[in-house]
Amino acid sequence: MEKDKKTICVYCSSSNHLPEKFYKIAQEFGTAIGKNGYNMVYGGTTVGMMGVIANNALENGSEVIGVIPERIASFGLKHPSLAKVIVTKDMRERKATMEKYADIFIATPGGFGTFEEIFEILVAKQLGYHNKPVIFFNFDNYYSDMLKMFETVYENKFAKPEARDLYFIANSIAEMFDYIKTYTPKEFVLKW
Description:
Mean pLDDT: 95
Radius of gyration: 16 Å
Oligomer: single chain
Strand order of the largest sheet: 4-3-2-1-5-6-7
Structural class: alpha/beta
Number of helices: 7
Shape: globular
Strand content: 15-25%
């Protein structure tokens, strides 16, 4: 990977059965990653939004690293055209490896795996293990109901209101890249 280019870690769906609008926005997002001068690390497959984003990032100048567990690689889903493919023992090792390469974390619309990955990164930031941008791409209001739940968390004091600064909600690709380009890490006080 080029040292002067930052790397975006993308968490997204591997499903091939989504409404077409999600593949279209995945194409636009992958193109934007490349055109804005970023590299990418992701789950390493050819399927779903994963494959679409990776292909479009590659076509637009990004170096792309795929990180795929042995079990998933055994299904023949490993992307053949990446700068580097890392095969891990399991999902836990996969997540740690992706985190190691990432300067920025973005969750596009996705399922349980996407939720689990971005929440682990969010909690790591809350606890001071990193201070990198964490973004939820709220395309087509995908995360809006989750954000209502976040407000319930704040109202009931399960998290301090300052926790809103741990993440950014982007409703468009342009908002994501504006946020990344102007991101200034903040110091967070641990909750204890």
